[in-house]
Specification:
Elements lengths: L4 E5 L5 H11 L4 E5 L3 H7 L14 H8 L4 E4 L2 H7 L2 E4 L19 H13 L4 E5 L7 H12 L5 E5 L9 H6 L4 E5 L4 H14 L8 E5 H32 L3 H9 L20 H14 L3 H28 L8 E5 L14 H11 L3 E5 L5 H11 L4 H7 E3 L3 H5 L4 E4 L11 H7 L5 E4 L6 H7 L2 E4 L9 H9 L1
Parallel strand pairs: 1-2, 1-4, 2-3, 4-5, 5-6, 7-8, 9-10, 9-12, 10-11, 12-13, 13-14
The structure holds uridine-5'-diphosphate-xylopyranose and adenosine-5'-diphosphate.
């Protein structure tokens, strides 16, 4: 099957970067990314390519190369569906906030809307690809809707989960460990559809890295990959607490175990807790599926990864209060970082949101600096929690675009995101402008504790005991 036009529904963190690379590598195929969010599409089309709505290192260059050539962004969803032989569904699938499966199952409302829209518009056969993370068996539901509400046209449903990590999306897309394509391997039509998608990736991905499986294996693999990764983070975070009590250093432990080639060094960085749009949502999906089959032990096993993560976020905030003499009421706490990880402007499920919420409940004043996250987004994240009114959030939280100004007259600094630039700050200058004793709570194990204590700070880093400056260090900090 020859593919000339691709449509992608959803111009978000997955759809945008993925389609940009597909278009870059397949210059003869027209790729149209559509979204109902007009503001988002306008930003993707902004003349200044630096203003695209998603920050990812290297992405603006790719967009610059392909946009207007064979990469298009539009709000005309129907027209793009009509024209395309292949449609990617890349809309959001957040955890349900209501009804059955509330707080656990994926909300497939948007997926279903897409399916119905495709069914209404399509006049010829289509390959429909689920790109968003979806619970197992969603493809079957999609097929059901398409086959029963369509205009009699034939659909092939494929699952092609995205494994890109935000912050490294372009790298991950350009050199993926593997591309996974699930489809109906028992029929000729199914195999042909899979081959059509294989051909698109084969333009830049080695054939041996493109795996084809049945649809359900593909769907489950996505959830499993994220569950395994998140489990590693929760495992090392569980040990971080033990390290703080025993005097072991979690970085040293991670290094020592990571050198065992069976364990490997990645995803062993202890932190204030994982965030992002995938880990929690995917594990909750897994738990929900397991429960729905009555597999309670399986469900409990995976749920513990989330319980540990919630504990880590709360523990970090509690430690700030405890260390600041059991009260932060009226105290100014400077947040360095709000994004859920470095090199992205995405804040979904960021630990910073929950730490801020906890400290605000303790009547702290929170001042935030993040190099890429907008003020609007930070307030939206807090408003979404619903803990306090919009007015209160704006009264208690200030967003400042200058890191030194953020720290001015603060009692403590909390490092919530591992942005590289934080390491290069003039920490002496920051120390001098803070109230004393000055504290740093390093939720990312990012900064050099020894250097900071030499400057005069008291440092509490995840996974190591609290380090106070020595008398000599305090003296020399005063002298200099
Ligand atoms: C994840 C998967 O990595 C990716 O394959 C999938 O497609 C989507 O979900 P993402 O959420 O973008 O990607 O980021 P990831 O790098 O996995 O980090 C998730 C969270 O874990 C972040 O908050 C990060 O800071 C945290 N983390 C990661 C740690 O705390 N320690 C680590 O060692 C690694
Ligand atoms: P992800 O990280 O999965 O890419 P995002 O929330 O960043 O998630 O992106 C999903 C996008 O899908 C949003 O921009 C949203 O407006 C869009 N979207 C959701 N439903 C539809 C729909 N029915 N038609 C077109 N776009 C949609």
């Amino acid at each position: 099957m020859k593919i000339k036009n691709i449509c992608c529904i959803g111009a978000g963190y997955v759809g945008g970067p993925t389609m940009a690379i597909i278009a870059q590598k397949n210059p003869k195929i027209n790729v149209t990314v559509v979204d109902i969010n007009e503001k988002r599409i306008a930003a993707w089309n902004d003349e200044n390519v630096e203003n695209i709505p998603i920050y990812e290192p290297g992405l603006s260059e790719v967009v610059k190369e392909a946009r207007g050539r064979n990469l298009f962004f539009s709000t005309d969803v129907d027209a793009a569906i009509d024209k395309a032989e292949m449609i990617f569904i890349s809309v959001n699938t957040p955890t349900k906030t209501y009804g059955i499966g509330k707080g656990m199952a994926a909300d497939l409302k948007w997926i279903e809307l897409c399916a119905r829209q495709i069914a209404r518009v399509a006049k010829d056969d289509k390959i429909v690809i689920e790109k968003s993370t979806l619970p197992v068996r969603t493809a079957a539901a999609l097929k059901d809707i398409l086959d029963n509400t369509g205009n009699g046209v034939k659909y092939q449903i494929l699952s092609n989960p995205e494994f890109l990590a935000e912050g490294t999306a372009v790298e991950d897309l350009q050199a993926p460990d593997r591309v996974l394509i699930g489809g109906d391997i028992d029929t000729e039509e199914g195999k042909a559809a899979m081959q059509a998608l294989v051909n698109i990736y084969a333009k830049w991905v080695p054939q041996e890295s493109i795996l084809t499986t049945n649809v359900w294996s593909s769907e489950l693999s996505k959830l499993t990959a994220n569950a395994f990764l998140a489990q590693r983070v929760s495992s090392i975070n569980a040990l971080s607490e033990l390290c703080e009590h025993t005097g072991a250093d979690v970085n040293e432990v991670a290094r020592a175990i990571g050198m065992d080639s069976r364990i490997g060094p990645k995803f062993l960085k202890s932190s204030v807790g994982f965030g992002g749009s995938c880990f929690q949502k995917d594990i909750l999906n897994l738990v929900y599926i397991a429960k729905s089959f009555g597999l309670n032990e399986v469900a409990d096993y995976w749920e513990q990864v989330i319980i540990m993560n919630d504990h880590q976020k709360r523990r970090f905030a509690e430690n700030i209060v405890k260390t600041l003499y059991n009260t932060v009421s009226g105290k100014k706490i400077a947040f360095l970082g709000w994004a859920f990880k470095k090199d992205t402007n995405d804040t979904r499920e960021s630990a910073a949101i929950y730490v801020a919420d906890y400290l605000l409940n303790e009547q702290a004043e929170v001042v935030v600096y993040d190099p890429k996250v907008t003020e609007e987004q930070i307030y939206a994240d807090l408003d979404y929690l619903g803990t306090r009114s919009e007015e209160e959030n704006r009264k208690l939280v200030t967003v400042i675009k200058d890191p030194y100004e953020v720290c001015q007259d603060s009692h403590a600094i909390a490092v919530l995101t591992e942005w590289d630039e934080f390491k290069d700050y003039d920490w002496k200058k920051i120390y001098d402008c803070m109230l004393k004793p000055a504290f740093v709570f390093d939720g990312r194990n990012l900064l050099d504790t020894r250097e900071l204590t030499k400057t005069g700070f008291t440092v509490s880093s995840i996974g190591s005991p609290l380090v106070r400056k020595t008398k000599e260090e305090r003296k020399s900090a005063q002298v200099s």
